[in-house]
């Protein structure tokens, strides 16, 4: 890293621009992240890109430059200040500690370190100061569904005191990465134009081709799956438990009752959540809207009579959590119903990691 | 109606086969209903078919015969014993009482009479005897989502005592009738093959063509809408309130707290429901499976480790409510989580009406 400096010794020294590494730069999240950098504050010096076997050797445009995509190898993090990991969990488990050992702060976008007791789980709109509490040099970002949810709920919790959540998350194909999107597009092309498919038992299974690395156990086109993630005990999926545990950690409510069900839906990008929230104090709907409207990273779009409610098609490519269908529970005085929608690749992943990186970079500036 | 009789006066008289009318025989539900008749007990005599402007004058195959589709007109129900209405609400409001006046029992598959205090709302697996309590000659069938839900919950309620429901219903395009399916197929053909659509704000709205009679306010292909039905007070949709009120009426629990959110999803047929149910008594999961397994019209398909859970693609064309993802709520000792899936056009509409008609026909036989 070269230090841009002035000619005159008396000139205020230019701060050294930190070097950023992006691991998984060619993935669904990584590609969005690399594009995002150009839209954010101009704080980065070198940007070093890494990927797996498919990406290595390709070139990626980042901040107007074409950068080679490299392999992870010993010494690859030398000189890196902040390393963003948007790669599979096992890759992060192995390489994030090595990045830290090389002097970098690691930001983990996978689920490798999210629930580690010494790793802060950070949503800059909610708990930015937690980013400083990185005892092992790693900061984690929550999964996409958790982000969409917590960004909307944090301020409501502060005012009314959250006491219970029942959530159904309809997860987009891109939540399963590049292969998820490719599979949905391939299957959609296979069923489009068939005038009867989807009307007889199993005809969709016959209409879509099977591929060895299919990430979904049933067709996703014209269908939905009541399953996302890995199996765990007692019939819960890892997505559901992750959403529960991460929400508790971020909101600082380790005992909060949460029931979550995750569905996979034939949407390219954009996670949707139906939320039944119960509070300690009665949530006045008028006040709820006020709070949401003034929360960072939240937009209320809610007038069904005019056809106004968020949908994945409308929120994809945007940063906030969109809130619609705000209404009081009919039979529960302290209950509130919400529909949330957010871009899982942006705020749900790439943007949140970039925001964390910016927080860390700003510490450096301040220091 | 001719009476098939024996040659000899001493022969047991053959029962008169009742005449059936189907109003809306050319719709999404009506077409399935007409096909279904061939798979059911052979009890019907004449079958008289009616439809609106598009269907009148066409011919439809029913029970191996080709029958003309007629217009509703004065006198059209003369000689009809049971009239099934699978037509728009306003048509049923006008014509069901006329069918009754002509001497028929009317079975209403629309939402015209479901909540009328003098009209029983019947699910033959749950409350068959209610069909006899038709004070104004009309029997109603609940909406598709209510059917999928109540068929699964009735026996659980009998054992554990239902005390609360939080439901998210992901409704298929065919729940919006023939036009709903046509719209989804047209939009799917329009977006299939586009390698980037669904990744930028609004690109889906540009990719699908608008048509005057579009039933959805946003693209449905590669998207989902947090809205189904008409607007009502306080931000609830008619689908959500209907699901709540009908479930209460069928289960005989007029005060049951129910929070429902209805989504429209890009699935051809097959409604999916996530259910968070709370009971008065602790629901043992093993016993829950036993009860569901032995309930009429219910199949448990639940082994996520083996990829076994119901999806619309698998349940479409079948009769039962399929139950998967059975698990105890983690933080609520009396809570249970379920995923339900059922064919909205079969049990969710056509089949339930046929079953009701068969109940009424059997009364005639018995009497
Ligand atoms: N998708 C989401 O909505 C979302 C949201 C939040 C968090 N996340 C997390 O973000 C991470 C990436 O997800 P994704 O959806 O972007 O997945 P993806 O599309 O499958 O991309 C994975 C990326 O990791 C790279 N990679 C694979 N093996 C590697 C290795 N051995 N060494 C270095 N790089 C390797 C891939 O490179 P190649 O191009 O060579 O394959 C690719 O760039 C995952 O941990 C995921 O859980 C995803
Ligand atoms: N779809 C479901 O999942 C579902 C489930 C439960 C209940 N329902 C209810 O069932 C009813 C039919 O729904 P659908 O989905 O089958 O709708 P659809 O596909 O739009 O079919 C409507 C049917 O009604 C006929 N019709 C329209 N105007 C008429 C008129 N003036 N006189 C006589 N017939 C007329 C139509 O005839 P043309 O062919 O001439 O248009 C068509 O046969 C609705 O009340 C709906 O709420 C639907």
How many individual helices of chain A?
A: 9
Strand content of chain A: 15-25%
Please report the first level of CATH classification, the CATH class of the largest domain in chain A.
Answer: Alpha Beta
CATH topology of the largest domain in chain A: Dihydrodipicolinate Reductase, domain 2
Interface with most residues: A-B, 79 and 79 residues
Largest sheet of chain A: 7 strands, mixed
Number of strands of chain A: 13
CATH architecture of the largest domain in chain A, please? Answer: 2-Layer Sandwich
Instruction: Say which CATH homologous superfamily of the largest domain in chain A is assigned.
Output: Dihydrodipicolinate Reductase, domain 2
**Strand order across the biggest sheet of chain A?**
3-4-2-1-5-6-7
Bound molecules: NADP nicotinamide-adenine-dinucleotide phosphate
- Poorly predicted spans of chain A: 1-9
Query: Can you tell me the overall shape of chain A?
Result: globular
User: If you compute it from the alpha carbons, what radius of gyration of chain A comes out, rounded to the nearest whole angstrom?
Assistant: 22 Å
**How would you classify the quaternary structure?**
homodimer
State the end-to-end CA separation of chain A: 19 Å
Please write the string of helix (H) and strand (E) elements of chain A: EHEEEEHEEHEHHHEEHEHEEH
Helix content of chain A: 25-40%
Q: Write down the overall mean pLDDT of chain A.
A: 95
Tally of domains of chain A: 2
Structural class of chain A: alpha/beta
């Amino acid at each position: 890293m070269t230090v841009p400096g002035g000619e005159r010794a008396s000139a205020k020294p230019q701060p050294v621009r930190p070097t950023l590494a992006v691991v998984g730069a060619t993935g669904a999240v990584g590609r969005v992240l690399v594009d995002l950098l150009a839209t954010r504050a101009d704080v980065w010096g070198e940007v070093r890109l890494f990927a797996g076997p498919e990406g290595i050797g390709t070139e990626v445009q980042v901040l107007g430059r074409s950068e080679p995509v490299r392999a992870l190898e010993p010494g690859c993090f030398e000189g890196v200040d902040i390393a963003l990991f948007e790669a599979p969990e096992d890759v992060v488990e192995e390489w994030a500690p090595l990045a830290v050992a090389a002097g970098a702060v690691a930001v983990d976008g996978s689920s490798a370190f999210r629930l580690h007791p010494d790793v802060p789980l950070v949503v800059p709109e909610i708990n930015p100061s937690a980013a400083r509490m990185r005892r092992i040099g790693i900061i984690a970002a929550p999964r996409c569904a958790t982000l969409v949810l917590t960004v909307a709920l944090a301020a409501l919790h502060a005012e009314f005191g959250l006491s219970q959540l029942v959530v159904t998350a309809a997860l987009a194909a891109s939540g399963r990465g590049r292969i998820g999107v490719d599979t949905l597009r391939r299957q959609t092309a296979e069923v489009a134009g068939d005038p009867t498919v989807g009307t007889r038992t199993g005809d969709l299974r016959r209409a879509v081709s099977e591929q060895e690395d299919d990430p979904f156990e049933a067709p996703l086109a014209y269908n939905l799956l009541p399953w996302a993630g890995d199996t765990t005990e007692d019939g819960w999926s890892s997505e559901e438990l992750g959403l529960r545990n991460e929400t508790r950690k971020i909101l600082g409510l380790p005992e909060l009752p949460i029931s979550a069900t995750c569905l996979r839906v034939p949407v390219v990008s954009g996670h949707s959540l139906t939320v039944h929230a119960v509070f300690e104090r009665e949530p006045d709907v008028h006040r709820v809207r006020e709070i949401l409207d003034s929360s960072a990273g939240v937009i209320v779009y809610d007038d069904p009579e005019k056809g106004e409610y968020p949908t994945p098609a409308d929120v994809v490519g945007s940063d906030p959590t969109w809130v619609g269908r705000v209404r009081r529970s009919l039979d529960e005085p302290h209950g509130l119903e919400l529909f949330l929608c957010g871009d899982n690749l942006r705020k749900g992943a790439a943007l949140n990691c970039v925001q964390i990186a910016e927080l860390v970079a700003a510490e450096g500036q301040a220091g």
